[in-house]
Amino acid sequence: SAVISQKPSRDICQRGTSLTIQCQVDSQVTMMFWYRQQPGQSLTLIATANQGSEATYESGFVIDKFPISRPNLTFSTLTVSNMSPEDSSIYLCSVEDWTGNYGYTFGSGTRLTVV
Amino acid sequence: GENVEQHPSTLSVQEGDSAVIKCTYSDSASNYFPWYKQELGKGPQLIIDIRSNVGEKKDQRIAVTLNKTAKHFSLHITETQPEDSAVYFCAASMRTGFQKLVFGTGTRLLVSP
After folding, report:
1. Of the candidates B42, B46, B100, which has its C-beta nearest A103's C-beta?
2. Measured in Å, how far apart are chain A's first and last C-alpha atoms?
3. Cα–Cα distance, A91 to A78 (Å, whole number)
4. What's the confidence (pLDDT) of residue B97?
5. Distance, CA of A29 to CA of A51 (rounded, Å)
6. Do A104 and B98 touch (CB under 8 A)?
7. DSSP structure string for B49-110
8. Cβ of A45 and B101 within 8 Å?
9. For B18-72, what is each residue's pLDDT tens digit?
10. Residue B49: closest CA among chain A residues belongs to which residue?
């Protein structure tokens, strides 16, 4: 299966600042996804990122707050902008993985704490 | 849109016992049902999945069953071991073309030695 490297693994940030999370995949993938997992909760899709097009955001998530880049088929970034303590969550990158058995593979996540 | 319910929220078993986690989904068009295991501080790891044209799938100590008529699917873990302790998530989506994965609320499984 695809191997995903996500950076940083964790960070503590001041409110009002922004953090950019990077997701690097070891193979070319069409579909990349960004999820948020609030403490003790399930996973919620933020947006879908296709190379060469604007990201598609889910209800409740907006581009100004969570801008996404997808410059090529192996890389994407998610920025969490103007952070508040409510943004404290785990942010996860995922890909639709056609290597080996089909499935959706996840990175190890970025644990963000906003103080 | 799709909605996935998962039960129980927590499950405690003794080592060697079996564990069963159940999920129901709402969209009859869903045809792909993966299960993920998430250990503390890690991302979700796919442990088994099932497509709608299959009623049951096994992989060593884990199995998944699917009842499309009733729109529910279950994860079965036999001979549980302490390393099975984790949070388990079910999910549903349509596999053809992209349809987002919709996750259940998770089950915290604790296996006591």
Report:
1. B46
2. 36
3. 9
4. 57
5. 9
6. no
7. EEETT-SEEEETTEEEEEETTTTEEEEEE-S--GGG-EEEEEEEB-TTTT---EE---EEEE
8. yes
9. 999 999 999 998 999 999 999 998 999 999 999 888 799 999 999 999 999 999 9
10. A103
